[in-house]
Amino acid sequence: MSSSWHQQPVKTVSEPMAQAARDHFARLSGPPGALGALEEIAARMAAMHRSLRPEPDPCQLTIFAADHGIANAGVAGMTDDATPSWLRNCLHGTSASAVMARTLGVRYEVIDVGLAHDPGPLPGLLRQRCGSATTDFRTTPAMSEHQLGAALAAGREAVERAHAAGCRLFIGGEIGAGKSTSCGAIACALLGLPPETVAGPGSGLPAEILSFKAQVIQNAVDHHQRFFSTPLDVLRRLGGFETGALCGAYLTCGQLGMTAIVDGFCSSIAALVAVTIHPALKNWLFFGHRAAEPGQYAIFRGLDSRPLLNLDMRLGEGTGALAALPLIRTACALLKETQPTAP
Amino acid sequence: MSSSWHQQPVKTVSEPMAQAARDHFARLSGPPGALGALEEIAARMAAMHRSLRPEPDPCQLTIFAADHGIANAGVAGMTDDATPSWLRNCLHGTSASAVMARTLGVRYEVIDVGLAHDPGPLPGLLRQRCGSATTDFRTTPAMSEHQLGAALAAGREAVERAHAAGCRLFIGGEIGAGKSTSCGAIACALLGLPPETVAGPGSGLPAEILSFKAQVIQNAVDHHQRFFSTPLDVLRRLGGFETGALCGAYLTCGQLGMTAIVDGFCSSIAALVAVTIHPALKNWLFFGHRAAEPGQYAIFRGLDSRPLLNLDMRLGEGTGALAALPLIRTACALLKETQPTAP
User: Fold this and answer.
1) How many angstroms separate the CA of residue A305 from the nearest CA in chain B?
2) Cα of A9 to nearest chain B Cα, Å
3) Mutate to test the interface with B, among A330, A334, A335, A341 (most CBs of B within 10 A)
């Protein structure tokens, strides 16, 4: 695997197949566009999979767990000592993502890509640690070049495994302390946003600390921005191992031709980095939901995309993307099985 | 069955059980309210079914098919000669609702409660005809007292059958020509709205006919309104057999203690009539989606309710409610199976 694999182009999608799907729906009983967003979901699946019978299953959810060096600087509602128990809940099948994946028949795996406190070998936990949390990015890059490469590769390999197992759809999730501050900083750097518009409550931050969080983001962007010449520079200096893994995962989805459902705020930041590298990657992504984080609006504007759901969720773990999965399955079934007139 | 069965009260729901569900979610990893709307869906299901393990299945979809006398007056995108083929598509399992119900594992039935053109006995079609379309309501009540009673009873009996079969969740759908004009008129009469705010494109009406549709609605409301002393007067004079059946179905859901997912514009009008009769019925209803009809906004304001999805669907047939069903199933699974810490 070349160190510049991420520069390889993503697969093209078939616009004629999308149009054929739209034509199918136009012939059904009812007014034009009667099935609303489901028609366009199906058309996009047809375009990606070059078929009027696109298959959304099997579906894989991979959760990347890592902590951020910034987590213990007073900007995060959750410090990094809480992450291991969260992760054990996933492995025991009692976290929200594990319950949803089981209910929906989605393959499930959790990878430690860099918790601050190494939980050691745990049954069911994959280990691909890029470090023990990133470095506090206030004055130093969050990741070394080597660490960024390892994080991207962790995501790439997860999608390659899913692809080899015949999966058609990939969902990435993330767990970790400090992620919303890091992701807010990336959003400000890539989209030129003022930090107040992205500094949200994260994992339960009290309102009075939000201005401090915004200041931390502003200072970090000011400190690093003269080194930003590519999107990966921004990711390396401000991001996390899990953001890097998600970015690598989405890029690989586009390169291998797998559909991805992007989860909430942090996942959409990883998608933003990946789409900035390859704009055509957007053709392979669904945005599952609009997370209840203020920065989420700006990201969707930046990506010119509309999320499928708006349920005020803000957990991460891939839960918002999982909530949207039934819509994609339903849309594919409608394209495959509806008929304009009774046979 | 007394002719005034609809006046019987609806069952109460358990607010302590809803609070216990909220308390469960508050103990999970992640920020407060991290699962967003899914938490409140689960809390409402817990309140309705008085259990922290509420079961949403089996689920029944019953489609009520009927035409409106107003359908051929130039206000409907679809005239009543198109209804039988639409209905046959449902019976053959190739309509959107049939495909979705099959995909989602939902029991499915179609009842002719009054098509203009009697399709005769068809395999799988239930017949409970209240007439051959309603009367054109421009100058005459759409239904007689007897017809309204028969329509309400068709809905009641569908829910009673579902309840006897052990169903926990009921979805009503509708098919028919002229329904959006009729439902718009009911909305104007019950909510005091100007007709321009509810006269939408229905089943594909060209924009230039919308003002005529609004005028028809205004004239009908003006003509009948001195006879409006109860919500059922409005339903009888302006509504359809399928609206009556849906209204009867929702009332019965509340009386028997079954959850209902209300579909789009026409179903929400039937729900509005039913909730106007019994405000506490709202506790038993989820609103599946916001249909792409202009009147839909006003109905939700009138009902003080928020739909689960916003997918720009406008087919009817229960499809919008079916699209929302996985959210309710997911919410129930989350309440039942998530744990605050790994066991």
Assistant:
1) 14
2) 32
3) A330
Cβ contact A338–B32 (<8 Å): no
Which chain A residue's Cα is nearest to B40?
Answer: A311
Residues B34 and B81 both lie in one domain: no
pLDDT, residue A199, reads: 79
In a domain, A128, yes or no: yes
Q: How many inter-chain contacts (A to B, CB under 8 Å) are there?
A: 172
Write out pLDDT tens, residues A177-201. Answer: 999 899 999 999 999 999 988 877 6
Task: Kindly state whether residues B15 and B143 are assigned to the same domain.
Answer: no
Q: What pLDDT does residue A3 have?
A: 67
Name every residue whose Cβ is closer than 8 Å to that of residue B117 and which is 6 or more positions away in sequence. Answer: B67, B80, B81, B83, B84, B132
Same domain, B95 and B122: yes
Residue B168 and residue B37 share a domain:
no
Q: Is residue B307 part of a domain?
A: yes
Residue A162 banded pLDDT, cuts 50, 70, 90: very high
Q: Which of A31-35, A235-239, B63-67 has the lowest mean pLDDT?
A: A31-35
User: Residue A333: its chain B contacts at CB < 8 A?
Assistant: 99-100, 102-103
User: Are A32 and A124 in the same domain?
Assistant: no
- pLDDT at res. B296: 86
* Catalytic residue list contains A242: no
What's the confidence (pLDDT) of residue B2?
A: 61
Are A204 and B32 inside 8 Å of each other by CB? Answer: yes
Boundaries of domain holding A45 = 11-53+333-337
- In this prediction, residue A208 carries a pLDDT of 76
B96 to A330: CB separation less than 8 angstroms, yes or no? no
- Contact assignment for B37 to A313 by CB distance below 8 Å: yes
CB-closest option in A86, A100, A203 to B330: A100
d(CA B151, nearest CA chain A) in Å: 24
Check B323 against A327: CB less than 8 A apart.
Answer: yes
Question: Which pLDDT band, with edges at 50, 70 and 90, does A262 fall under?
Answer: very high
Domain count, chain A: 2
Residue B295 lies in a domain: yes
Predicted complex ipTM: 0.95
B102 and B136 inside one domain: yes
Do B104 and B123 share a domain, yes or no? yes
Residues B197 and B287 placed together within one structural domain of the fold = yes
Query: Does residue B4 sit within a domain?
Result: no
Which of A91, A311, A316 is facing B38, going by the closest CB pair? A311
pLDDT tens for B192-246 read 999 988 877 666 677 778 888 899 999 999 999 999 999 999 999 999 999 999 9
Regions of chain B short of the pLDDT cut 50: none
Name the residue facing A315 among B35, B88, B322 (closest C-beta).
B35
> What pLDDT shows up at residue A102?
98
